[in-house]
């Protein structure tokens, strides 16, 4: 079983729509979860972190975590063409390891 | 000025050459990491360091070595470069007092011919 699984995409959504990005992870000890955005050829940029079950909202972004299902998601409301990028899910590799395990990413394309 | 810098940004070298990639940070973070990114394989951890005297191997350390010269500097060396080390290399940092958030440098694109 892969440690972190994400649909590779591309996920195409029209401008203004909600983009939903999903991630499952295998390490039940993970306590910290991060979403990074990466534009082609650029470095990953942290956009959301979540540590507790439920939803966490920051502007147009909402992260959702369900530890029992080992599932974390990212919703992007009012998607803009500038949101077109690859989104990386990164759970902590076990509690207290201070290491992250990265998924391969989902490529999002927002169509004007 | 960028918080995490990497030099060089691009490097082309030949098989068998020794290469050093450097990372410097002004964030005051104690933890530093080296990753490589390959198309279709995602980001993989090479080495990490929690302070100057604490260096640990990641999941793909073979063929690499590191040096933590100071809290702010963490270098990655390829002792004898081979073509399958062609990749995008990233340095990242995180704070001891933080929530495990990692912040990435701009990356070094390395090509080994």
Main traits of this protein?
heterodimer, A: 112 residues, mainly beta, 5-stranded antiparallel sheet, 5-stranded mixed sheet, 0% helix, B: 113 residues, 4-stranded antiparallel sheet, 58% strand
Computed structural class of chain B? mainly beta
**Order of strands across the biggest sheet of chain A?**
1-3-8-7-6
Mean pLDDT rating of chain B: 94
Proportion of strand residues of chain A: over 45%
> Roughly what percent helix of chain A?
under 10%
The span between the termini of chain A is 37 Å
Arithmetic mean of pLDDT of chain A: 94
Shape of chain A: globular
Tell me the number of helical segments of chain B per DSSP (H or I, 4 or more residues long).
0
Quaternary structure type? heterodimer
Give the C-alpha Rg of chain B. 13 Å
The parts of chain A where pLDDT drops under 50 for at least 5 residues are none
Please tell me how large the radius of gyration of chain A is.
Answer: 13 Å
Helix and strand sequence of chain A:
EEEEEEEEEE
What report would you give on this structure?
The complex is a heterodimer of chains A (112) and B (113). Chain A is an all-beta fold and 112 residues long. Helices cover 0% and strands 49% of the residues of chain A. In chain A, the strands form two sheets. Chain A has a five-stranded antiparallel beta sheet with strand order 1-3-8-7-6, with no helix packed on it. A five-stranded mixed beta sheet of chain A has the order 2-10-9-4-5, with no helix packed on it. In chain A, 38% of the residues are buried. Chain B has 113 residues and is mostly beta strands. Helix content of chain B is 0%, strand content 58%. Chain B has strands at residues 4-7, 10-13, 19-25, 31-38, 42-51, 54-57, 64-70, 73-78, 87-94, 103-104, 108-112. Chain B is globular, with a radius of gyration of 13 Å. The mean pLDDT of chain B is 94. The A-B interface holds A 32, 34, 42-46, 49, 51, 88, 90, 92, 98-100, 102-105 and B 31, 33, 35, 40-45, 48, 50, 58, 90, 94, 99-107.
């Amino acid at each position: 079983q892969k440690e972190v699984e994400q649909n590779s995409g591309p996920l195409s959504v029209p401008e203004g729509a909600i983009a939903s990005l999903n991630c499952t992870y295998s390490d039940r000890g993970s306590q910290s979860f991060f979403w990074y955005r990466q534009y082609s050829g650029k470095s990953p940029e942290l956009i959301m972190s979540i540590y507790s079950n439920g939803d966490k909202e920051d502007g147009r972004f909402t992260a959702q975590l369900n530890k029992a299902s080992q599932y974390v998601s990212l919703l992007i409301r009012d998607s803009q063409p500038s949101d077109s990028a690859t989104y990386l899910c990164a759970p902590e590799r076990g509690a207290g390891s201070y290491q992250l395990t990265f998924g391969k990413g989902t490529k999002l394309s927002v169509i004007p | 000025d960028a918080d995490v810098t990497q030099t060089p940004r691009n490097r082309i070298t030949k098989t068998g050459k020794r290469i050093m990639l450097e990372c410097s940070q002004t964030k005051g973070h104690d933890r530093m990491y080296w990753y490589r990114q390959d198309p279709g394989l995602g980001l993989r951890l090479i080495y990490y360091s929690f302070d100057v005297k604490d260096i640990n191997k990641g999941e793909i350390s073979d063929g690499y070595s590191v040096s933590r010269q100071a809290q702010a500097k963490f270098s990655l060396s390829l002792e004898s470069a081979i073509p399958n080390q062609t990749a995008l290399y990233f340095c990242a940092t995180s704070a001891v007092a933080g929530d495990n958030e990692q912040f990435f440098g701009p990356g070094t694109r390395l090509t080994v011919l």
